[in-house]
User: Fold these one by one.
Assistant:
Number 1:
Amino acid sequence: MAKAKPEKNTAEERSWRDLEQKVNPRTMSAQGRKRFALAALNAALIAAMVVGAGWGGYEILATLTSDTASLRDPAGAAPLREIVVVNDADGVLDQEWVERTLNLRKGTPLMEIDLFQLRTRLLSTPQVKAVDLRRDFPGTLTVTLRERLPVLRVNAQDNAGVTRTLLVARDGVVYAGQGYDSARLNALPFLDGVRLARNGRGGFRPVEGMEDVAHLLQAAQNDAPLLFADWRVVSLARLGLYDEIVVKTRKIPEIVISRKIDFTQQLARLDYINDYARTQPEAVVQRIDLSLGGDVPVAFDSAESRLLSPSSVKPSNTRIRRDL
Amino acid sequence: MISRNRIIAAVEIGTHKVAALVGEFAGGRRLNIIGLGACSAQGVVKGSIVDMKAASLCTHAALEAAERKSGARIDGIYLAQSGAHLDGFYHEGSVNVSSADNLVGRDDIATVCELARGKELPTERSVVQFLRRPFRLDGQAVPNPESLSGRKLEVGYWTVHGDKRRLSDGINLINGFNLKVDEIILASLASGTMVTTAEERRNGVLVLDIGRGTTDYVLYRDGYPWITGVVPVGGDHLTNDLALGLRLTSGQAEAMKLRHGSAVITAKDRNEKVWLNGDFAIGDRHFPRQAVEQITAVRITELLEVVRKKLGPAFVPEMLGAGVVLTGGTSKLMAVDETAGAVFGVAARRGELPTNLADELRDPQYSTVLGLLFYGLNQINERHPSVAQRRSAGLMERFTRMFANA
C-alpha cells in the first residue's frame, strides 16, 4: 500500500507558486487561442531548427571523427571495374597497352586512384602526346589518348651503340614507335642531314623544322601519292641555311624543294617533269631543283645529256633562264 | 536568473478597470515602459473575479492592446493581488547564535527565517507574500546581521495569504492568454513603492490605495512593510450611497460623485444647489450641495476609520513621520487628504507619481501597475545583485567610460 504523502501545512511550504498553472481551453478567449496557436507554431519552428542544426552538427562531427578514407571515397568504396580507352582514329595504342602501362588492379576504389600519377606514367611514353583521365562513377576509368603520328624514320644509335630505327613525329619528337603496322612504317622515308642530340633522359631532342617537312609530306601523300611512294630519304641538311628540303627517290638522287614556295605548286611541277622524263627513255634524271620557282633546272647523268629547256617548263621567266 | 531584455506585463484586474502595462527589463537593472493597455473591468466585484468569461474577455483585450502598442511579445506577467480574501498574520522566530565566537553565520540567518515563516496556515489558503521585518540581534534592529556579534537573533514576517481558489482564478485567467504568472504582488505594496520614497518609508508612512471596490493599505515602518490589508470598501460605496440617498441611477450617482463629491462639507448654505447634468435638458435635476457632500464625506470618513480600526495597535501616529499617502482612483475626491489627516491625526497628502512618466500614466489609477514593474525590478536586483553589478560594468560600458574620461 502506498504511503500517504504528508500534507503541507506551514506557510513556507504553501506558496501560491504551488498552484498549477495550465492553459484551460474554457478560460481562453479568441485572443488567447490565437496567441496559443502562434506560440505553438513558433515552438515547432524553433524545434525544427534545433533538430536540423543538431543533425547537421552530428553529421559533420561524425564525418570529421571517422576514418578519413570515407572522405576520399564518399561514393561508398566504388571499385574500379573497367578501363575504357578512347583513342584517335590514327592511334595504335590499344586497351591492352594502356592496362599494362597503368598497372591497376580491378577492384581498387575509384577515389583512391591517383590520376596525376597515372597521367605521368602514360606520358612517359613519347608516342603519347596528351592524356585525359576521368572517373566515371560507379566504376569506370576513362582514358582518352592523343598519339604522335610518325612522319619519318631515322636510324640512330642508342647508348649501347646499337643502331635502331626510330620514328620522327610532326612536332620533331624522336621516339621508338610501338604497335604500328610494318607496311605503314616501311612506307615512311628516312630522315637525313640532321645531327640528333641526346636529351639526357635516354632519348633525343626534338628535330627542328619538322613542321615544314610534315607539311610537305602531307601534301605529297595527298596530291601526288605515286611520287611519294618513291621517296626514300628526306634530308634537312640545307634547311637551316637555304630553306631547302632535299628528297631522294628511288629514281632521282636529288630533288630540291624550297619551304618558301607553296609545296603543292612545287609538287605539280615535279609531277610534270617526271611525266616528261618518262617520255625520254634515254634521259636519266640526276637532280631536279624546284626551289627557283617557275624555272626548274633538271640535271641528267650522261655526257650527251642535255639540259631540259627551261622554256619547256615555263618559258616566260627570262631572268632564271639567263642564270642557267 | 533573469534574461536580458525580458518583456514583462504588469496586470491589475480591478473592480473599475483592467490595466496592463508592458515593461522591458533591460539587463535586469533598467526598466523601459513600452506599452499600456486598459479596458473597463467586467465580472469583477470587490477585487474578486465572479464571472470568469467576462473577466477573461476584458483582461485579454487589455493584454492584447498592450502587446500591440509595445510591439513586443510578452514573456511573463506580474499580477497585482487584491480582494477581501487576503489576510495576514505576524509570526517571528528566534535562534541562539550557533558559533562559538558568537558571530552570526548564514546558517543562523537561514534557520531563523525558516522558523519565522514556519507557522501553520489555515486550510485552503496559500501564501501570497512574506514581508520580512528587520532582524534583531540581542534586541537591537539591524538590517543585515551576518558576521555581527551577538547571542540571540530574531526576525519576524508579516505573512500575507489568500484563498486558493481566488488566487487560482487570477492565475487561470492569465493562463488563458497563454502566459504564465511570474510574480503575484500585493496591490498595496506596488502602489506604496510608487508613491513613497525610501526615506518616507524609513520615517514611517501609511499608504492607502482607494479603488472602486477595495481599499488596499500598507503601513511602512523603519523602511519595511509592517502591515498590509484590504478593506472591501471603495469608491463604489460612495456611489451607491449617493444613488440611494438621492434616488439616482448608478451612472448618475457616479457622475455626481466625480463632479460634486467631497470628503469634507464645504457648503455652508443649505440652499446651494448642484445640477445633475448641468445641461438644463429634460430630466436634469438639482440637489442640495450640502447633501451630496455630506453623503460622500461621511462615507469616506467611515472608510478611513475602518482602515484605522483594522490597523489596531500597529498604528502609532508618532511613528508615522511621513504621514498618510493616498492613491487610487477615489483619492481624486475633493479634500480627501484633509479628511485622512483628521481621521489619522497625522499629515496626509495625495501620492504623486514620478514626473519622468508619460502624462497618460501620471494618474493615480495607474500607480499599482507602475508599482508592480518597479517593485519587480527591485526584487530582481535584491535577488540577483551580481547580475546588476556585472551588467553595469559591461565591456562596452567600460570602453565608453574610458573614452569619456579621456
Note: The first helix of chain A runs from residue 30 to 65.
Number 2:
Amino acid sequence: MHAPPGVPPDVGALLAWSARLSDCADAARAQAVLLRDRVDERGLAGPAGDALGALGASVADELLVLAARCQVAAGALAQQAHLASRSGR
Amino acid sequence: MRARVDVGQLATLAGTVGVVERRVDTETAAVAGAVGVLARTGGAGACAAVSLAAAARTEALAQLAALRTVVALAADVYAGVEARVVALVGARPAPPRLGRLLAAAQVDDLEALLVAAPALAAAVAAGATSSPGVVDTLTRTLLLPPAVAAREQARTLGRLDPRERRLLALTEPGLMTALVGAPASDRFAASRVLVAADLSRLLQRRALVGAQPRLDARIAMRRRLLDDDVVLRHPDGSTTRHRHQLLVFDPEGDGRVVEVLGDLQRAEHLAVFVPGTGSDLDRYPGSLARMVPFAAADPALAVVLWQDADHPDAPFDDPPPPPDELARPGAAQRYLREHVIAAAYRDAADLAGPALAADVAGLRVALAGPASDLTVLGHSYGGSIVGSAEAHGMVVDRVVHVASAGAYVRDVADYAAPSVERFAMTAYDDPVRLAQGHDAADSASRLRAMLPAALDPLAPAVAGAAVAVVPAPAAIGHGLDPDLLPGVVRLDTGVHADGRLVRGHSGMFAPDSTAWRNLLAVMTRGRVEVLQPGLWSSHLDPLGVDTHLPTGRTDPAVQVHLPRYVIDRTPYSDPGYRAPTLDLGSR
C-alpha cells in the first residue's frame, strides 16, 4: 500500500483498505446498537428522560450514517480494485 | 420539574457513552487513514466515498462527546450536587456541536431537560450554537426603531417552522428574550432556560460561600419561577393555573424581569403595570402578588408586570461604604445620589421610558389580540417611567398614574399622543403628594410647608444648603402632578369593604377596595368611580413632636413625626355616599 506518490496502489492494497473500511462499518453499527440499547435503559423517566433518549437515539443514528458511508467507501475501493485487476495492474 | 431518576443507571450510561466514543475512535481510525493515502492513489469515486465516511466519523465523534457531557451533567444534577456540576461546566466551555446535538431533541422535551438540569442550561446560555444566519439577522433588528424592529423580528421568525423557532429560543435564550416581536410562548421558553442558568450560578455561589439568607431566598425564588404555577383564583370560586410566563429574565445588576399573567388565548384586554422605586428581582414576588388578583378577576384580561429597566434603589438598599471610602471626594454625594434619594431624580425614567416604549411596541405586534385594548399603569416612580415612555413614542389606549411620582413632562404636548385617555389616583394622605409636581426650584417653599412655623426663617437657608449639597439638582423632579394633567380623570380611592378609607402609598392594591376595583375597571374598559375633589380636604402637618401619656415601656411619651398629610374631610363619612361613575366602554 505504501506506493510512491503518483503511483497507483496495487490490487491487493486496495482490497486490504476495502476490508478495513468494511470492518469500520461493522464496528460503527455495533456501537450504534449498543448505544441505543443503553439509552433505552437510561434510568431517567419523564420528559427529561425522553429528551435524553432522543439525544442518544440521534447519536446512534449518526453512527449508523457512519457505518453506511464506510460500507459505501469499502464497496468503491473493491470496485476500483476490480477495475485495476482487469487493466492488468 | 423533577423526574424519577436512577442516578446509578445514568452514571452507567455516561460510562457507556464514553466507551462507545473510544471504540468508535479506535475501531474506525482506518477511515481517517484511508483519506490521506487514497487522496494520492485512489480513483475519484473511491476518494469521494472515503471523504464522506471521514466527515461522518468526525460528526459522530463530536456528537458522542457532547452526549457524554449531557449525560454526565444530568447524572450529577439529579444526584443533587448541582454546584459541583456548575463548577465543572464553568471550567469548561460548552462542548463542540452541543447546539447541533440538542437540535435532535423534541423541543418540549429539550425545554424540560434544560430546566431540570440547570448546569446544562448554563452551558447553553453561555453560548451555544444556532444557525448564524438567522441569529445575525435577528440581532441586527435590535438596532431598528422599536415598532419596525418588532415587525421585522416577527417576519423573520415567522419564516421558521415552530419547532425551529422553539429550538432557537432554547439555544439562544438571551437573544430570544430581547426580541420584543417574537411569539410570547417562545420567549417564555427562553426565559425558563435563563432562570435555570441563573439558578445554576446561584448554586455555584452557595457552594463557595455556604448558606446565607439572602442567597437562599434568591435560589428559592428561581426554583419557584421554574417549578411553581401561578394560581388565579377567580371571582366565581374556581381556580386556574399556569406556569410562570416570563418574557424577560436578566439577573444582571438589580435584575430585569417581565411576566405575563393570565390566558393570552382568551384575553381581550392587556394591561402593563410598572412598579415603583426599589423594584428589583428580590422585591419581584411582592409586585407579582399585587398583580395576580387583577389577572384572576377577569379571564378577558392579561396583565404584564414590567420591570425591564433599572429602577432607582429604595433608600439604603445598599449600605453605606466604610467611613474611609465615604470620605473620598464625591463619594458621599454619590452615595446620597444613588442610594438615598435616587427616586427624586428622573434620570432612571429617562432610560426606562424608551425601554418601556419599545417593549409596548413589541406587545402590539406579538400579542396583537389582547393588545388591541392596551392600558399602561405606573405606580409611584413607575408613573414617571410611563410618562417618559409616552414622551418617547409610546401610544396606548389608556394610561393610569397610581400614586404617581409625576407625569414626567411639564406639558402634555410633549407626549407622543397628547389626547390619550389618562387617569390618576392618589390617596389624600399619601406621602407621594410631597413630591408630586415639585422639583428643586421650589424647595424653599416646600421646606417651609414641611417644617414647623417657628423654623420658617431658616427654610430658604436650609433649602439653599440642600441644593448646594445634593448633586445635579436640575435632574430632580418628575414633571407635572398627574392629578392635574389636562383632561385627566381622577379616580376615587374610596374605602375598603369594612368602610375604612383607602390610605397611604399602596392601599389601592387591596382587592376589597374602591381603588382596586377602579384600576381593574380601567384595565377592562369598565365603569369607574370618579373622585369628587370638592368633597375632600386635607392639610399638610409639618415635622413635629407628639406627646402623650405612655401606656408601657415600649410606648415613648415623646415621638417625632415626619411631615404628613392629614385628611380633614371625606364624603365617606356618610355611609350612603356613592361616587359618580363613568362607563369607559361607552366613551
Note: DSSP finds two helices and no strands in chain A.
